[in-house]
Amino acid sequence: MGTVWGDSGSGDSREAYPNLAARSTPGELWNPDFMREYTDFESCDEFLLQSPWDVLSVAELEQVPENPRDAYVDQHTAFAGIDEMEWVANTEWVSDTFSH
Question: Within a domain: residue 73?
Fold first, then answer.
């Protein structure tokens, strides 16, 4: 699918939102609405299970070497790599959480 966002400019999303990990989970960030809008998958679980690696969590996916992992993300999502995917998910989560 390739990128639609260009350079997010933030680098690692954990740097942009240092306390976010304590407030959200990958399931909240990569929720079904997010996954349907930006990926070829219906859920985070499907995204992980369909990957070429034996991973059951986002944390395990992050341990896969960057080049093959980002190639998988680029092929099956609207993002160039996992950092961009996490940045957009984090940004949307913050916006949704704090706009109410």
Answer: yes
Asked whether residue 100 is domain-assigned, the answer is: no
Residues 16-62: tens digit of each pLDDT: 545 544 455 667 789 999 999 999 999 999 999 999 999 998 889 98
- In order, the DSSP letters of 25-44 are -HHHHT-HHHHHHHBSSSSH
Model confidence at 100: pLDDT above 70 = no
Nearest to 88, CA basis, from 2, 7, 1: 7
Count H helices and E strands in the chain, helices first: 8, 0
The C-alpha atoms of residue 11 and residue 55 are separated, in whole angstroms, by 24
The distance of Cα 16 from the centroid of its chain, to the nearest Å, equals: 14
Q: Which residues contact 22 (CB under 8 A, 6 or more apart)?
A: none
Q: Is residue 5 part of a domain?
A: no
Measured CA to CA, the distance from residue 37 to residue 80 in angstroms comes to: 15
